[in-house]
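S2.1 Query sequence (Uso1_p115_head domain-containing protein)
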Amino acid sequence: LLCGGLFSNDVLSTWFSSIALLHCIRDNPRLKEELLRVLLASNPDGTPVSLLQQCFQWLVQANRPQTRIGILQLLCTWLAHCPAAVRRFLSAPSNEPVNGVASQSASTGSVARGANLSVLIAEVATVVNEDETEVAVRGLITLLTCICVLFNSNDVPGFDRYVSVSSSYVLLFLFAVFVSIFYFFILTSYY
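Output structure tokens follow.
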């Protein structure tokens, strides 16, 4: 029932299902890991899709901010304090293009690790709309990125904590997003 509502085209169904599911898994590490084994309907090529990957794909495809905020809240709750979920999220390939370039390597045919995170970072870096809901989406994407750094168990190649945090680009990016969100909320609090 929750999965049906989570991937519904109705904004309220998606919102309520994601919030209900996040409250079910909040402070429950065993359930977070069990949800990693949930497989949903298969892709067109016949392979099953994990619930985590389907949530990410729905997040990328959704164009309503309420849907995106609900799914981002669910992903943040799911990945927080669950290194297995962070590992799966960072390891999962994405079929979505990053800045117009697919994550599939033409020479090797392999799919880039961390493509999910790359898609989200590219989206935050290119967002030009500064309305309240888009700022909330950017803030949640930044929070999800920080959760991936903090709860990473260092067993995904290229995504250990030292490499993730030592990149000055990532640090500057996160700082800039936090400053813009802080600035936005200060401005809106005076109205």
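The mean pLDDT is 76. The first strand starts at residue 39 and ends at 42.
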